[in-house]
């Protein structure tokens, strides 16, 4: 079963220690639900496309990607006229002109036939010439295919070290702030209601977004879905 957003946030509270972006967590929940093979370039590429769609809050694009991955046989081919889903189109067959797409010098180097400027998310060892960054955000793992992630498929079964700072450098004043997106209830997956926010984990909840009336300068009703969650989020304070 794919992990819910609440389970992911609870794992942070219990001290797993690695903070994932909401988009990254949702995309990997989708990937598990679709049984994508994250040990392959194609599986990690599909997960990356899902992450981009979730980050852009594109419900239509997420649904389209989910349907394509569920119902359509995977097609990893490309050519001079057929674009890649992600990456560079590598060396083509001498007879058919068809190739497969990927990242790094094998696909983006001298033998590349189209979209040769594509770069991987991170550098697994083939150099910054082929990568957008040498490291992944939050020091998570860079897979052999150049994608960032935290599962064994990305980390080669090596546990990633959580980012840490010395006690003297900490400036949080013991505040742990949760970021709650009210519109998440409209997503096809990865939904989280206020009551799912783990108690005892956060000192503050950042409710995103609220509407300020330009005349009264008081909070106002954005829509029914937002208004019904204002009081439910503030009610959590009394339960802790």
TrEMBL record:
SUPFAM superfamilies: (Trans)glycosidases, Plant lectins/antimicrobial peptides. Residues 119-167 form the Chitin-binding type-1 domain. One of its GO terms (biological process) is carbohydrate metabolic process. It comes from the Eukaryota. Residues 1-27 form the signal peptide. CDD domains: ChtBD1. This is Chitin-binding type-1 domain-containing protein. It comes from Cercophora scortea.
